[in-house]
Amino acid sequence: VHRTGKHIVFDLGAPGTEPNDSGEEIALRAQSSASPAAQWIVHLGMTGRLLVTNRDSPVARHTHARLDLSSGRELRFVDPRRFGRLEFRDLRRGAAFGAPGAEPLTIGPREFTALFHGRRSFIKAALLNQTLLAGVGNIYADESLFQAGIRPRRRASRLTGTELEQLRLALRQILTQAIRLGGSSVSDYVDADGARGFFQLEHRVYQRTGEPCRRCQTPIRRVVVAGRGTHYCPKCQR
Ligand SMILES: [Zn+2]
Question: How many angstroms does the Cα of residue 208 sit away from the middle of ligand 1?
């Protein structure tokens, strides 16, 4: 199981078992080799969760998929608001899943600068554009821009080389720390064991409108950029 952008990708092998075209019952074995026969791709969306449970556990409302694991347990996909997505790919008939954007945890300075060079959109909108960087969502865009001291409505093309490098390092630091703390449980996100994340306790600006900046005490402001609520400190970010 690995992550590509915002997607969770399960690499699967199909020894002696043809996938059922109806998609209702597919027996596949998890495969760690470099050339999987199939992939199951999950996007959690706003409220999706993957839960590993015992087979006889009560089925929660809004459970959209139940998968048998060879351990005898069950993997369930629960999504009340249904913004999540599930996809099955037979790799003998099509290409493996790939994200169009660059990976923010490993991208180098030159490639990062090239992504935003000449782009007239707001930097916040550019960060959310999954064809540029894969996997940066609203929370992490706001927190990274705060960390880098950059206002969300600066034009991407107007950022200096130094600012872009600060932003690249801020993204890497914020994402790494958020992953370590199990993500941000701002609504109902939990991991596969049902545990909540703790990164929401570290938020400096996200959903802190009107509250004092943790660095300078100035009230945090909220604007809308690219249709998304955007939070920043008017003093710490320029
Ligand atoms: Zn501040």
Answer: 12
Say if CB 91 and CB 38 are below 8 A apart: yes
Q: What is the pTM of this model?
A: 0.83
Q: How far is the CA of 17 from the centre of ligand 1 (A)?
A: 58
Interval between CA 108 and ligand 1 midpoint (Å): 28
Q: How far is the CA of 1 from the centre of ligand 1 (A)?
A: 39
User: pLDDT digits over 143-169, tens only?
Assistant: 999 999 999 999 999 999 999 999 999
Does the structure show a pLDDT above 60 at 33? no
SS (H, E, C) 79-138: CCCCCCEEEEEECCCCCCCCCCCECCCCCCHHHHHHHHCCCCCEHHHHHHCCCCECCCCH
Q: How far is the CA of 180 from the centre of ligand 1 (A)?
A: 25
Residue at token pair 């369930």: 76
Question: Rounded CA gap, 34 and 235, in Å?
Answer: 49
What is the structure's pLDDT at 23? 45
CA of 35 to the centre of ligand 1 (A): 49
Please name the residue ranges forming H helices in the chain: 109-116, 123-128, 138-148, 161-180
Q: How far is the CA of 42 from the centre of ligand 1 (A)?
A: 37
Q: Is the pLDDT of residue 62 over 90?
A: yes
